């Protein structure tokens, strides 16, 4: 009986890891910016353009960009290497908007969530006010 329960727990844990396979690998390594849209629209493109202008600042803050559309996603700004999956879109899509952007911290928690274009200034100020980022900045002086 104990072996059966242990086996079921192992299978359940494995299944949970599959659901979180794409984002959990970043925990304690990277901060994430998830850009979720119903389609590649003007707001989606404005957000990408806003972030692309500040790639050094993104790198300094250990930010990984996820572009998430209904049937596919990719990381970074490249238009290649899209992966087919609707899992991330289903999990993070906006309820009442065709656009959503989420900041996920090193600990895996959501730190910022909005349905309009996020300015780099607000993004960086939010991150720079976090205790872990403050420690990173002190360490790098």
TrEMBL record:
* Domain of life per record: Bacteria
Task: Look up the signal peptide feature and give its range.
Answer: 1-20
**Cell cycle keyword on record:** no
Q: Which Pfam families match?
A: DUF4174
Q: Is Repeat a UniProt keyword of this protein?
A: no
Looking up InterPro entries in the UniProt record yields:
DUF4174
Which keywords accompany this UniProt record? Coiled coil, Signal
> Can you tell me which residues the record assigns to a coiled coil?
34-61
* Domain DUF4174 span(s) in chain numbering: 23-136
Q: This chain belongs to which protein, by name?
A: DUF4174 domain-containing protein
Which organism is this entry from?
Salegentibacter salarius
């Amino acid at each position: 009986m104990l072996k059966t329960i242990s086996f079921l727990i192992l299978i359940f844990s494995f299944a949970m890891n599959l659901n979180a396979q794409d984002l959990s690998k970043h925990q304690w390594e990277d901060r994430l910016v998830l850009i979720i849209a119903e389609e590649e629209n003007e707001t989606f493109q404005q957000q990408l353009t806003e972030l692309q202008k500040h790639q050094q600042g993104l790198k300094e803050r250990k930010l990984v960009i996820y572009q998430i559309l209904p049937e596919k996603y990719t990381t970074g700004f490249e238009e290649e290497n899209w992966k087919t999956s609707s899992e991330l879109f289903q999990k993070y899509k906006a309820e009442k908007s065709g656009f959503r952007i989420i900041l996920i911290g090193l600990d895996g928690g959501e730190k910022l969530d909005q349905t309009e274009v996020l300015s780099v200034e607000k993004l960086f100020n939010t991150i720079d006010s976090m205790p872990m980022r403050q420690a990173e900045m002190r360490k790098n002086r």
